Amino acid sequence: MEIDQYLGVFIEESKEHLQSLNQHLLELEKQPEDIGLVNEIFRSAHTLKGMSATMGYQDLANLTHQMENVLDAIRNHQLTINPDILDIVFEAVDNLEEMVLDIESGGAGTKEVTELVRQLEAIESGEALHQSNAAAEHKTPEEESSLLLDEFELAVLRESEEKGFQNFYTKVTLREDCMLKAARVYMVFEVLESLGEVVKSNPDVSQLEDEAFDLTFEVLLVTKEPKELIEEKILKVSEIDAVSIQNFFIDTYKHVQDAANEETAAAVMEEKTEAMTTEKKAQQSNKTIRVNIERLDILMNLFEELVIDRGRLEQIAEEVKHPELHETVERMARISGDLQSIVLTMRMVSIDQVFNRFPRMVRQLAKDLGKKIDLQIEGAETELDRTVIDEIGDPLVHLIRNSLDHGIETPEVRRGLGKPETGTIKLKAYHSGNHVFIDISDDGAGINRKKITDKAINNGLITKEQAAIMNDNQIFGLIMESGFSTAETISDISGRGVGLDVVRNTIESLGGTITISSEEGKGSMFSIELPLTLSIISVLLVEIQKEKYAVPLSSIIETAIIPKSDIMHVHNQAVIDFRGRVVPLVSLKDVFQVPNVYEETDYYSVVIIKKGDKSAGLIVDGFIGQQEIVLKSLGNYLTEIFAISGATILGDGQVALIIDSNALIK
Amino acid sequence: MAEEIVQDVKVIVFQLKNEEYAVPVTQVGSIEKMEHITRVPNTEDFIKGVINMRGVVTPIVDLRSRLGLEETPVDENTRIIIVDLEETSIGLIVDAANDVVDIPVNKIEEAPQVIGAIDIDYIDGVVNLEDRLVILLDLRKVLKFHEIEAIKSIES
């Protein structure tokens, strides 16, 4: 078998199973009596075992096998769950994760796991009853064969019975999400034929090859091998959900057949159709396909080209003034607008992808720190552009670690303060307008304003005078300044300050903002605001002399045209009184050293922009209009250009620069 | 005496003022006619701006100004040579792109060390082709890649 082509699928599915293992184990920890959860865990472990054995990863298979035994004992009530068992199972899952990651990065997936296997074995034999018993128990002997045999087949079976062979009725159920049903069937048949002879299958072989069956198929096998061996070997084929094997006796078959009236047959039929409809329902609720991310990126790039050409067409139509052309271009613009929203939503991924690793992390950290933490997650289904998702993980990890380490107090301290011993960290994501908000809040100690102020003054970030007039939010913001932290505060979990400035930089580089609010003794909250998508944005195109620049709409409050006489000067800084506020003016012509071509007029066009609660007015020479543009980077040759965040290609094929308005507000 | 195997490098020869310069063909993506350049403010003088090169925003360097020659107005011979360096495309403005020649490696001589006063670390060598003298450029140094990298490494 060509293993390589299945490797990608194997890794992907293994990760999914590991994720579900983690998730269910965490739930199980909270509700140890829920056998349904144990079954879920068992199923994941079981599939993982089968897959890794097929792919030839022996260590992986061994470990999962032993883990599966323990789980099996639990679900058969031979073992009761206790924290020790769970810890070891968690450790086993960790090891499995490492192995899968190793395989993904091209390794052999081997790892020294004998100690863990031994521990698992100890757990299993320590309290477990006989494994064989358990195995016998979960058989379902009442399963009825629905095979119809003709005379010839009956003769073969009778003969084999007489010659000392055993006849087994084998029912194999494939997993619901099995992708290569025919291939799996083929593999099962190969296994069976190595053990004995297949007399009959239902549906028949050609139907099986055409995948003309649901998920289960039945086989009559003539063999000398024991039942257990057959079962084990079949389970080694991946994507098999269950196998049941029963002895098949011709006498009973005949008896049943004879006694069978239409009623039973109808009942069987009914059962089958019922099974089929539920199957179909399950499929309908999950009509998705996997698409390689690269393809989506290519699609996005192509679409960006289209947006540029659309702009060009619009411009041509404008110049030509041909009504039919105009109409067509307008229609095209509408359609491509719809297409754009679809392409964009296709790239949206739910933030659950990032959130789902946190429960594990929090559990471990809480254990290490001797704290009791309840992590609450809200809005995990909130969707964000994949590029944002890729980047947001690390900052969130850091903020959560920070809350755990510095926010939540130890149980003793909390008890002393009259708080519940278990601290709460809340992770909340939600949409609002064109932005996504992520809040990380805790009910811990909060931030001590005085401590922060003192330290900031000591480190020379601010002066005493400045500190006196700063509001709480501004003070709290200081902990995210680089240079705030000093080496002595670094701990294993998070060195406060080291990294918090990195967190802020990452978020700002994504076009987002982060703010901190806190109440001492009650807790703190970090709020992150992120744009929904990064690649296509709305801008206002402006003219400065003969050059065109784009100002992101998200930072514009409004535009105005003001007479020169309205400009006042404060400390050599030009300002205007705008709706009762004093707004400083920035001449983009001076900032960007634009060569002078036009005569100055008596009126200024001003774009009022904001950054947090501060604002400024940008003086330009004219407004061109609002436009959707595709964000392009200036590449790595031109870096760190003051007040320029990127470039875009306009309808006429020329490049316009995008103004980073944040840099223009002090 | 064993026969010596002489390797050739293919170079693109272009004109700046009265002299001919060359860069290896392997580093050249395309040669374009002059088009509208969007000025990028607050950059070094020799960076003229950016152009749209088939959907990619590409920085443009005026090679005359970079090599300390006086700039000349654009005429119909002016070309932009797009070079690819470490996944970055950069356009070089030259007076004219002349031709493609094979240069035997053993004919490349070291740059003469007489000019002294001017920093000439970007010259890779000189080739005497019959009656032509061609100067080979080290593009990484011409484009100050090492300086950019140095800045990056300090930052990180």
From TrEMBL, chain A:
PANTHER family assigned to the protein according to its UniProt record, in alphabetical order: CHEMOTAXIS PROTEIN CHEA (PTHR43395:SF1), SENSOR HISTIDINE KINASE CHEA (PTHR43395)
Protein name per Swiss-Prot or TrEMBL: Chemotaxis protein CheA
GO terms under biological process: chemotaxis
Residue ranges of domain CheW-like in the record: 536-666
Superkingdom per UniProt: Bacteria
Enzyme class: transferase
Stored CDD domains: CheA_reg (cd00731), HATPase_CheA-like (cd16916), HPT (cd00088)
Sequence ranges assigned to domain Histidine kinase in this UniProt record: 284-534
Modified residues (Phosphohistidine): H46
Organism name: Terribacillus halophilus
Xref: PROSITE patterns: CHEW (PS50851), HIS_KIN (PS50109), HPT (PS50894)
Database matches in Pfam families: CheW, H-kinase_dim, HATPase_c, Hpt, P2
Ranges where the HPt domain occurs: 1-103
EC number: 2.7.13.3
From TrEMBL, chain B:
Major location (coarse): cytoplasm
InterPro entries per the UniProt record, alphabetical: CheW, CheW-like_dom_sf, CheW-lke_dom
Plastid recorded as keyword: no
Cellular localisation: Cytoplasm
Keywords (A to Z) from UniProt: Chemotaxis, Cytoplasm
Any one Gene Ontology cellular component term annotated for this protein: cytosol
Domain CheW-like stretches: 8-148
Source domain of life: Bacteria
GO biological process: chemotaxis; signal transduction
Zinc found in the keyword field: no
Gene3D superfamilies documented for this protein: CheA-289, Domain 4, SH3 Domains
Pfam families noted in UniProt: CheW
UniProt name for this protein: Chemotaxis protein CheW
Origin species: Terribacillus halophilus
